[in-house]
Amino acid sequence: MIDYKNLSLANQVHQVIEENILNGVYKAGEILSESKLSEELGVSRTPIREALTRLESEKLIGITPTGTVVLGITDKDVKDIFTVKMKLEPLIAGLAAENISEEALVKLKDIIDQQEFYDSKDNKERVRNLDTEFHDTIYAECGSIVFQSILSPVHHKLLKYRKSSLENAERSPHSIGEHAGIYEAIKNRDKELAQKLMLEHICHAYENIKKGTKK
Amino acid sequence: MIDYKNLSLANQVHQVIEENILNGVYKAGEILSESKLSEELGVSRTPIREALTRLESEKLIGITPTGTVVLGITDKDVKDIFTVKMKLEPLIAGLAAENISEEALVKLKDIIDQQEFYDSKDNKERVRNLDTEFHDTIYAECGSIVFQSILSPVHHKLLKYRKSSLENAERSPHSIGEHAGIYEAIKNRDKELAQKLMLEHICHAYENIKKGTKK
DNA sequence: GGGAGTATACTTGTATACAAGCATGGTTAT
DNA sequence: ATAACCATGCTTGTATACAAGTATACTCCC
Q1: pTM score, two decimals?
Q2: Which among B4, B91, B150 has CB closest to A150?
Q3: What's the CATH code, domain A75-213?
Q4: Rounded-to-integer distance, Cα A100 and Cα A138, Å
């Protein structure tokens, strides 16, 4: 399977703008102009528009004939996202335990190993990106395009909040340990355990985020 | 709130292509060409591309540098969609019972009245479109952009299957009756009842669809 | 006849030019 | 001074031209 993502300017633009929104560089309420983005990023309006179109379907921005406004995500959105994750993601973990391929198992193990490595090097950003990769891999291997298409964008939106959570020095090793547990359960094809551990993993992540946003 | 949907060619194109995919006019595996769509629909490639970009994020098509392939939805997707709906939509109904505005209540009532009217006129298509409007209104009124953005596209994907279900002569009045029950519960701000009735409504719809696809 | 190489006709991806609408600010007239 | 009107510069929306890559089919050579 060829990964075309690296080839397209529009995809790169999408990632950049998405990250800027989630990290607060483009703040909620701010007006984005296609022309300005075009100049800033050094590409024409066409790939910019394509990226904006996708960001709109993710509800991160709102496009009107008179301007494009940043919506971003609120604390309430985060709460709702975790509600969705708690309801659906254990199911996914169970499905993955049934359907995952051997290559994907190797990939999951590799992600966990890398997470441990970069955590020991205190490279938070890599750990965070690998967290996304871990969950995305499970989404991709559950065998359901419906669940994948719902959870993948939803999980991505937690970027900023995962950032504050995983930068909590205590949370990071716990999270990686939980990943390892989930991996083992999936590897052993233990559907029930995978579901249980995934639910706990999400609950812990949410509790940690709540702690982080309150202080 | 102004509805800009009617103004844009790209939105119209999106609707047309989406409908053609869901209704099987464009079959799974078929290759769509931007140029051909452009000629067929009488617009330039630009709005076509915008529509295809959105359809890709809905996972109804897959875009590669060598062509655009129709993915459509399978029976398994429908099963997964109902799993998602059963998990999330009762929550939404409960939230709507808490948050819905008076105008939206009037709108829901009006939708139900129209459904009864068009059902008596045997206008299945209008009944079906009103079903979408009923659920979309509840999504919009639950006060959560996250839930709305997940459930709205997911519900839309059932178009073809809703078609076969609601064209079942017996299901249609039942469905409308269930809508009325949900409306009453939301109007009375009875959260628990709204949740319960919504779950039942979805279960019935799914059972009916299963019956329809098996024969 | 079969195989290799090339040309052609597609595909998506990108850039740019043009159109229409709106908001804002300046200017002019009262 | 104030109000109305007009022009200017923005916005998104659309069309079109060009670029790069690929698959296929045809032709030529062996």
Answers
A1: 0.89
A2: B150
A3: 1.20.120.530
A4: 8
